[in-house]
Amino acid sequence: MSRKALGFDDESSGEEEAPAAPSWRATSDKSTTSKRLGPSFLNKDIDEIDESIYAYDEVYDEVSHAKKTETLRASKATRPQYIQGLLEAKNRRQEDKLRVSDLKVSKERANEGDEFKDKEVFVTNAYKEHRKKVEENVKQEEKEAGEVDMKTFHRAMMDSHDRNAHDQMEHTTNQEEQKEENDTQNVEETHISLQAGLNIPSKAKIPSQAPASPPPFKKQKPSRQSETQEVLKQIEESEKEKKKKQDEKRLATKKSRLLPKLSETDIEQYRQQYLQRKAAAS
């Protein structure tokens, strides 16, 4: 067989078969695209096609960002709840210890006096920053304490103002109600009943009896202080009376002990002796 029969003719094969390959690829690409996008998409104009369908990178970034956000939220949810408070308490304790140590050092320096006055003092930058931080913390604590005191003061003032306003409102309401009741009573008392068919009021009847006596004077209720003084006065009087009775009883007991031992003769004798001593003294 010749080279041409076996298909090794370079000139003829190059001229005949070279255009066939692009035709096959174009047909296959067209069929694949038509299967993937559909016939309705191919019939659309190029201007009508939405360019966002090719935004693969943007869509991927959004999806990955959403996944990262969800992962971060889950990690925050599983984070310990009380560790932050414990760490803050630990830092406060350390600051308090450092503050106490600074106070001790300052007292020692004050006790030393001028003993090491001629010595050179070395202060590091770290110690300066530490002192600055301690002073800032002290100022912040004083400020917070002052704010708490002011809040407490304002709260107490507002509470007292609310109570006073409430009491004043109740007092005003009671006065208005009392005034309305008095007005109603006055209207009822001054109302004149008319008979049917006549608009002539009846004459006032002259009272035949003497006017009623004024109501008795109502004794005011004594105050608590006067009641206390009255009770103390009664207690003192009862104690005096009791003491007087005891003295009388004691005197009667002494007399009862002495009188039976002395007769009338002895009493007269003692009387005469007393008169003699009195005359001798004069």
Automatic annotation (TrEMBL):
<dbReference type="InterPro" id="IPR053246">
    <property type="entry name" value="NS_splicing_regulatory_protein"/>
</dbReference>
<dbReference type="GO" id="GO:0000381">
    <property type="term" value="P:regulation of alternative mRNA splicing, via spliceosome"/>
</dbReference>
<feature type="region of interest" description="Disordered">
    <location>
        <begin position="133"/>
        <end position="257"/>
    </location>
</feature>
<feature type="compositionally biased region" description="Acidic residues">
    <location>
        <begin position="8"/>
        <end position="18"/>
    </location>
</feature>
<comment type="similarity">
    <text>Belongs to the NSRP1 family.</text>
</comment>
<feature type="region of interest" description="Disordered">
    <location>
        <begin position="1"/>
        <end position="42"/>
    </location>
</feature>
<feature type="compositionally biased region" description="Basic and acidic residues">
    <location>
        <begin position="133"/>
        <end position="177"/>
    </location>
</feature>
<keyword id="KW-0175">Coiled coil</keyword>
<feature type="domain" description="Nuclear speckle splicing regulatory protein 1 N-terminal">
    <location>
        <begin position="46"/>
        <end position="146"/>
    </location>
</feature>
<feature type="compositionally biased region" description="Basic and acidic residues">
    <location>
        <begin position="233"/>
        <end position="251"/>
    </location>
</feature>
<feature type="compositionally biased region" description="Polar residues">
    <location>
        <begin position="25"/>
        <end position="35"/>
    </location>
</feature>
<dbReference type="Pfam" id="PF09745">
    <property type="entry name" value="NSRP1_N"/>
</dbReference>
<protein>
    <submittedName>
        <fullName>Nuclear speckle splicing regulatory protein 1</fullName>
    </submittedName>
</protein>
<dbReference type="InterPro" id="IPR018612">
    <property type="entry name" value="NSRP1_N"/>
</dbReference>
